Protein backbone atom coordinates (compact mmCIF):
# COMPACT_ATOMS: atom_id res chain seq x y z
CA UNK A 1 0.00 0.00 0.00
CA UNK A 2 1.24 3.43 -0.83
CA UNK A 3 1.94 5.94 1.93
CA UNK A 4 -0.70 8.42 0.67
CA UNK A 5 -3.41 5.73 0.74
CA UNK A 6 -2.68 4.78 4.36
CA UNK A 7 -2.43 8.36 5.61
CA UNK A 8 -5.76 9.40 4.01
CA UNK A 9 -7.75 6.86 5.98
CA UNK A 10 -10.04 8.18 8.68
CA UNK A 11 -9.25 5.90 11.62
CA UNK A 12 -11.92 5.42 14.31
CA UNK A 13 -11.03 4.12 17.77
CA UNK A 14 -13.08 1.46 19.51
CA UNK A 15 -15.46 2.67 22.19
CA UNK A 16 -14.27 -0.20 24.39
CA UNK A 17 -10.66 0.85 24.83
CA UNK A 18 -8.91 -0.30 27.97
CA UNK A 19 -7.93 2.26 30.59
CA UNK A 20 -4.27 1.81 29.65
CA UNK A 21 -4.99 2.94 26.08
CA UNK A 22 -4.82 -0.40 24.32
CA UNK A 23 -7.31 -0.06 21.50
CA UNK A 24 -8.26 -1.23 18.07
CA UNK A 25 -8.88 1.26 15.28
CA UNK A 26 -10.79 0.69 12.05
CA UNK A 27 -11.11 2.59 8.78
CA UNK A 28 -12.88 2.10 5.50
CA UNK A 29 -10.57 0.59 2.91
CA UNK A 30 -10.85 0.86 -0.87
CA UNK A 31 -7.16 0.52 -1.67
CA UNK A 32 -7.59 -2.87 -3.36
CA UNK A 33 -10.54 -1.77 -5.46
CA UNK A 34 -12.91 -3.65 -3.16
CA UNK A 35 -14.81 -2.03 -0.32
CA UNK A 36 -13.60 -3.31 3.02
CA UNK A 37 -12.26 -2.48 6.44
CA UNK A 38 -8.70 -1.81 7.58
CA UNK A 39 -7.83 -2.69 11.19
CA UNK A 40 -4.83 -1.69 13.30
CA UNK A 41 -3.61 -1.42 16.88
CA UNK A 42 -3.97 2.18 18.05
CA UNK A 43 -0.26 2.26 18.90
CA UNK A 44 0.64 1.48 15.25
CA UNK A 45 0.06 4.90 13.72
CA UNK A 46 2.93 4.87 11.20
CA UNK A 47 1.28 5.80 7.86
CA UNK A 48 3.82 3.71 5.95
CA UNK A 49 2.80 0.56 7.81
CA UNK A 50 -0.90 1.42 7.82
CA UNK A 51 -3.35 -1.37 8.58
CA UNK A 52 -2.35 -4.67 10.11
CA UNK A 53 -5.43 -6.45 8.71
CA UNK A 54 -7.48 -5.77 5.60
CA UNK A 55 -10.90 -7.43 5.47
CA UNK A 56 -13.53 -7.43 2.77
CA UNK A 57 -16.92 -6.06 3.76
CA UNK A 58 -18.24 -9.63 4.08
CA UNK A 59 -15.34 -10.73 6.27
CA UNK A 60 -15.81 -7.68 8.50
CA UNK A 61 -19.54 -8.34 8.82
CA UNK A 62 -18.91 -11.96 9.83
CA UNK A 63 -16.22 -10.94 12.34
CA UNK A 64 -18.41 -8.21 13.90
CA UNK A 65 -21.31 -10.66 14.23
CA UNK A 66 -19.06 -13.21 15.92
CA UNK A 67 -17.78 -10.58 18.36
CA UNK A 68 -21.33 -9.52 19.24
CA UNK A 69 -22.31 -13.17 19.75
CA UNK A 70 -19.42 -13.75 22.16
CA UNK A 71 -17.45 -16.12 19.94
CA UNK A 72 -14.13 -14.69 21.16
CA UNK A 73 -15.06 -14.13 24.83
CA UNK A 74 -12.90 -15.97 27.33
Compose a concise summary of this entry.
Helices cover 23% and strands 24% of the residues. With 74 residues, it is an alpha+beta fold. It has a 4-stranded antiparallel β-sheet.
Give a verbal description of the structure.
Mean pLDDT is 78; it is low at 1-6. The relative contact order is 0.18. The protein has two helices and four strands. The protein has helices at 3-7, 57-68; strands spanning 12-13, 24-29, 36-41, 53-56. Helix content is 23%, strand content 24%. The chain is flat, with a radius of gyration of 13 Å. The protein is of the alpha+beta class and 74 residues long.
Notable characteristics:
single chain; 74 residues; alpha+beta; 4-stranded antiparallel beta sheet; 2 helices; 4 strands
Number of strands: 4
Oligomer: single chain
Strand order of the largest sheet: 1-2-3-4
Helix/strand/pairing category? alpha+beta
Helix content: 10-25%
Q: Shape, please?
A: flat
* Percentage of β-strand residues: 15-25%
CA(first)-CA(last) distance: 34 Å
The Cα radius of gyration reads 13 Å
User: How would a crystallographer describe the biggest sheet?
Assistant: 4 strands, antiparallel
- List the helices and strands in order: HEEEEH
**Number of helical stretches of at least 4 residues:** 2
Mean pLDDT: 78
Instruction: Return residue spans where pLDDT drops below 50 for at least 5 consecutive residues.
Output: 1-6
